[in-house]
Write a structure and sequence with these properties.
Blueprint lengths: L23 H10 L1 H15 L4 H25 L3 H6 L7 H32 L4 H17 L4 H24 L4 H7 L10 H10 L4 H13 L13 H5 L13 H41 L11 H5 L1 H51 L5 H13 L6 H23 L3 H30 L8 H27 L5
Helix pairs in contact: 1-10, 1-12, 2-9, 2-12, 2-17, 3-10, 3-12, 3-17, 3-18, 5-6, 5-14, 5-16, 5-17, 6-14, 6-16, 7-12, 7-14, 9-17, 9-18, 10-17, 14-16, 17-18
Length: about 475
């Protein structure tokens, strides 16, 4: 018989205007989520298809809203991360967590390399030298700051710059006088006669978050105290610093009272998720307008090592050289901040997955490949590698530091690198969506599970991403289409 996963204590949810202070995770998630999919892939899609895929954007944004809510639902109800829920599934021990970990190790390395390469392409417009060299230097600096836990101030300034970029993008989209009839037509589902999935699929895979970004939303809401925060979670000083103080101390209550408090928290979280996706949609759609109105008429597709220069056309056509430098500066600071945030997010996630996967063996003093490797590493370095902070730094340095540098040095085209990252995300999303739904439907009490509407939407979302993944794999196998 399955044992339901419900937190021991539930904090009282905020009411009225006090809810506003809890909407921060939605904005933070949005700021990190819109980076690549907006700045790079949306103008590329718009330059090729103008508004024809606007309906697809709306659909994916809705699916993203559904998926991030379900990730956060599990954390609020259970007091644990979705990774713990996946670990509880029957079958080979930890198989679902392994299916998250292995593809994301590749996605992390490729994603950091792509983000850094785009920043390097912008830096070479300001400074003499090679874009790849600047990209490598960025990875090195970001890795040092994140591994040392000293990046918070830099990330704060990058968020401010991201807000400036987003505001300028929305204003620019209004200034160019978008073609309203064309937009209305684009909201009606249609498909290009000669679709290039190499352009479309990375965009779909990175709209708002990407596969691991879906998981991160649950992290960010939980570590900021939604429902009372995470329970029975090994913490280090860095993660404690991010935790929001709970609203009030709880008292023992009946099951019905507990369920109502949890539902109140789910309602607050829903507002947070809605704010994040709506704000993100506004920015992404603005980039679609700019790409359709400014790049498509010139038949200009942002690509290659000069992608940052191509993208400056979005602002320079409106505000001249000032707009060009604004966009270049925004790319450097905003995407540089995304490198920091992604290194931190992936590092924490990989550390959590490693601790979950090795918990039984560590508690029973058993050996295993990971346990033995970490024991050897401790012997060589003197570091207790099964402490969360050390594991996080290990992954930050190796997976989001050394490996991205190697990728940057091997592949010179940032668009190709980021496209690979987006394709991995699109291929991985169906598994995350469908297994998360299964966990919520089987591991949570009936009163707190997703209802029929959300269940149907999650199922359709998983099938949607699976169909796109199959379509792209078929395209690769047959050699049809562009790319």
């Amino acid at each position: 018989m399955t044992q339901f996963m419900v937190r021991n204590k539930v904090q009282a949810a905020p009411q009225g205007r006090s809810k506003l202070k809890w909407y921060g995770p939605g904005l933070l998630w949005m700021l990190s989520a819109v980076g690549t999919g907006s700045i790079l892939f949306t103008p590329r899609v718009a330059a090729e298809y103008e508004y024809q895929l606007a309906w697809l954007l709306m659909l994916v944004v809705f699916f993203m809203w559904v998926m991030i809510r379900e990730m956060a639902r599990f954390s609020i109800v259970s007091g644990q991360t979705m990774l713990e829920g996946l670990f509880s599934l029957s079958g080979p021990k930890g198989w679902a967590v392994w299916f998250i970990l292995v593809p994301q190790l590749l996605a992390a390395a490729v994603g950091i390399a792509g983000l850094s390469a785009i920043v390097g392409s912008a830096l070479k417009e300001f400074l003499p030298g090679n874009g790849s060299l600047y990209a490598v230097l960025l990875v090195v600096l970001c890795t040092l700051f994140v591994a040392a836990g000293r990046y918070k101030m830099l990330e704060k300034y990058s968020r401010y710059m991201a807000i400036v970029l987003m505001a300028a993008t929305v204003v620019a989209a209004v200034v160019v006088s978008p073609n309203v009839p064309a937009i209305a037509q684009g909201l009606m589902p249609s498909w290009p006669q000669e679709p290039d999935l190499y352009i479309i699929l990375p965009w779909v895979g990175t709209i708002l978050a990407g596969s691991m970004g879906i998981v991160w939303f649950g992290y960010w809401t939980a570590t900021r105290g939604f429902g009372g925060g995470l329970e029975s979670r090994e913490r280090d000083d860095e993660s404690e610093a991010d935790t929001k103080e709970p609203a009030k101390e709880t008292k023992d209550c009946s099951e019905s009272e507990r369920d109502q408090k949890i539902k109140d928290w789910i309602s607050v979280m829903t507002g947070t998720a809605t704010l994040g996706v709506v704000a993100g949609l506004l920015v992404i759609f603005s980039f679609m307008v700019l790409g359709s109105e400014l790049l498509a008429p010139k038949d200009m597709m942002p690509k290659g090592s000069d992608v940052a220069t191509d993208l400056t056309q979005l602002f320079s056509d409106i505000w001249g050289s000032a707009g060009e430098y604004l966009l270049l500066a925004a790319i450097i600071i905003a995407l540089g901040g995304s490198v920091l945030a992604n290194q931190d997010g992936w590092g924490r996630s990989f550390a959590d997955m490693t601790l979950i996967l090795t918990r039984d063996k560590r508690e029973n003093n058993q050996s295993g490949p990971i346990v033995n490797s970490m024991a050897w590493f401790k012997k060589v370095t003197g570091l207790a590698m099964f402490e969360r902070r050390h594991l996080k730094r290990f992954y930050v340095v190796l997976v989001t530091g050394i490996l991205p540098i190697a990728i940057i040095l091997i592949f010179s085209d940032p668009v190709a690198v980021m496209s690979a990252s987006g394709i991995i995300a699109a291929l991985h999303t169906p598994f995350i969506a469908l297994t998360a739904l299964y966990v919520n439907r089987t591991r949570l009490p009936k009163a707190l599970r997703p209802g029929l509407f959300i269940t149907v939407c999650m199922t359709i979302a998983g099938i949607f991403y699976l169909a796109f993944a199959c379509l792209y794999l078929w395209n690769m196998a047959t050699g049809s289409g562009g790319g």
